[in-house]
Amino acid sequence: MSILSKLNDLFIDTKTDLLVNKRIILRVDYNVPIKNNKVVDPTRIINSLKTINFLIEKNNDIILLTHLGRPKTEEDKLKYTTKTIFNFIKENNLFNCNNFEFIEDINIKIDYKGRNIYLVENVRFFNGETKNDLELAKKFANLGDIFVNDAFGSLHRVHSSVAGISNYLPTYFGLLVKEEILNLSKLLTPKRPYLIILGGAKVSDKLNLIKNLLTKCDKMVITGAACLTLYKSLNFNIGKSFFEETDVSNILNNNLIILPTEFIVVDNIDNPSYKIKKNIKDIGDNDIIVDALINEDIRKAILDSNTIFWNGPSGIFEKGYNEGSIEIAKLLSESNAFKVIGGGDTVNFINSTVEYKNKIDFISTGGGATLEFLEKETLDAIEYILKLKTTI
Ligand code: 3PG
Predict the structure, then answer these.
(1) Ligand 1: which of 154, 206, 364, 370 to mutate, most ligand atoms within 8 Å of CB?
(2) What is the Å distance from ligand 1's center to 154 Cα?
(3) pLDDT value at position 391?
(4) Low-confidence ranges of the chain (pLDDT < 70)
(5) Which long-range CB contacts under 8 A does 252-258 form with residues at least 24 apart?
(6) Is the Cβ–Cβ distance between 342 and 313 less than 8 Å?
(7) CB 342 near ligand 1, within 6 Å
(8) N or C: which end of the chain has fewer CB within 10 A?
(9) Per-residue pLDDT, 49
(10) How far apart are alpha carbons 353 and 195 in whole angstroms?
(11) 116 Cβ partners below 8 Å, 6+ apart?
């Protein structure tokens, strides 16, 4: 049974009579990029509005829960407070509600008022969140009457505010989760040929995923710094470029994998005195590879495919090295395939190129969650919640 059919009668639009005049705890994924205490890309906030408006129209109160970053120290609390998100939403008047408040203390009782929205401080500031501590989950649950999970990007995490809370409240899924699963499910039975483009910095934490996805696609392009780790283990000189000391032998010789061959190299990432194009065979000892360009094999793979999934930019995107990503986006815009993009940096990048963005069929809000969904065809928090549903 597909995950979509398992969830079918748990989406909020099938529960219109139930979700009226309630205090709804809504788990969203507002793990958005922040710079100097300002929201840089609000995509995830904007994408939650469909569910929020749906619930507000039915006179519910909404208590929003989200994590932001991976806070570890006391200092991190300044950087990762959700007050930054609260201010952004207020300044931009994004919520059409009676009152919008920020809550730091989760031991309070919230009385039903109707069309009020509350944003709780970063759930990861509370002990036990990432361990799915059930005492903490119970505290979150005490804030409302019903739990709605719309945090697609976090559904691979079995944490107190994502999953544990369902032990204590009737649980449903939001409209963003529905849209994500509807679209991503199309990648599970793709129109062939099916191409996956994986970029980004790291390959070590994706080895099993890559192995698994190689059984599902017809070709895979590995770009970004991820491909440098592969070149390094093939004994190429990659100069002073970033790579990981990890054993990639189990994917190295797979003939479905296509690697870039042309790169942009510099001598210094922040202050380069040169920035030139070089073939992988010509990289010098002092070169730093900052971007991977497309070659004829990649071009052909993109244009020949009927389904394409892209996750991870080709270069150091945050430092402006995005020539390769622009080449990929341009080629995608010329292709007639069903095209899906996922992952924070890739979504960030595509949002900055309106002409190419409009040619993408679906932009997923998930990073790790999207990849795990493609790999496992489900997500751990969904399974946790479904299990509770059958045992309750
Ligand atoms: C994401 O951005 O991928 C999600 O918000 C999950 O964040 P996490 O990897 O810190 O759990």
Answers:
(1) 154
(2) 6
(3) 66
(4) 391-392
(5) 254/214, 254/220, 256/214, 256/217, 256/218, 256/219, 256/220, 257/214, 257/219, 257/220, 257/221, 257/222, 257/230, 258/219, 258/220, 258/221, 258/222, 258/297, 258/298, 258/301
(6) no
(7) no
(8) N
(9) 98
(10) 22
(11) 61, 62, 97, 98, 99, 100, 101
C-beta 344 within 6 A of ligand 1: yes
pLDDT at 345: 87
pLDDT tens-digit profile of 25-35?
Answer: 999 999 999 99
Of 110, 104, 106, 94, the residue nearest 52 (C-alpha): 94
Question: Is the Cβ atom of 343 under 6 angstroms away from ligand 1?
Answer: no
- Residue 70 CA, ligand 1 centroid: distance in Å: 8
Structure token digits, residue 250: 């189990």
Q: What is the pLDDT of residue 342?
A: 93
Is the pTM of the predicted complex or chain greater than 0.85? yes
Please give the pLDDT value at position 296: 98
Atom 9, ligand 1: residue with shortest CA distance: 368
User: For position 392, what pLDDT does the model report?
Assistant: 52
Q: How far is 246 from 251, CA to CA, in rounded Å?
A: 12
**Rounded Cα–Cα distance for residues 353 and 330 (Å):** 10
For 42, other C-beta atoms within 10 Å of its C-beta total 18
Residue 40 neighbours by CB distance under 10 Å: 11
Q: How far is the CA of 163 from the centre of ligand 1 (A)?
A: 15
The answer to whether the CB of 144 is under 6 A from ligand 1 is no
| Beta pairing partners, 339 | 308
- Say which residue the tokens 């479905």 belong to: 256
Whether 367 lines ligand 1, by a CB cut-off of 6 Å, is: yes
Residue-level pLDDT at 318:
86
Kindly give the pairing relationship between strand 219-222 and strand 257-258.
parallel
CB 121 within 8 Å of CB 83 = yes
